[in-house]
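Recall the central idea of this unit: under ordinary conditions, the amino acid sequence of a chain determines the structure it adopts. In this exercise we apply that idea directly, starting from the sequence alone.
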Amino acid sequence: MTTPASFAAALESLRQVRYRPELSIEEAPAPQRLAPHAVAITAEFVEDDEELASGRLVLLHDPEGVEAWQGTFRAVTFVKAVLEPDLAADPLLTGVAWTWLEEALEAAGPRTALGGTVTRVMSESFGTIGDRDVSGQVEIRASWTPLCDPADMGAEAQAWAALLAQAAGLLPLPQGVAVLSPAHRSR
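Accordingly, the structure predicted from this sequence is:
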């Protein structure tokens, strides 16, 4: 199948993004049945051998357009982060996490058909493993239709990375601070 120029431009834009050095980014196999063209990016933030956050961004493209998408491109994301138990128990967490997504996407430009879910998970161990600490997680699943030029699709990946960093508890980078790509980054 021939790659359309619009998808090739989107791929080039995605591959030019410079991510925070704390995030380990890789291009991963994309789902094949959702659209004629797709790319997936995975990321994780690990500190002291513990994964604090991970995620996946999939960019789908159907040159014919999909009515439900309201366009020819669709971004789909999943972000999971470990939380302190008291934060995970906060009843406002799901709304706050959705706000993280909305704020991250504001910087990416116009979009339509944004939808998704936020799930909080609390785990408490019992019996022979009862000595483990109570743990918490937040999971954000969302999809939206970017309305930007395909050559500017990297902004969607930057928004996703900002969401992942926020969920991981990383402080935002100050305006104007350049992000250098780490040497260990792979594609």
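Residues 179-187 have pLDDT under 50 and may be disordered.
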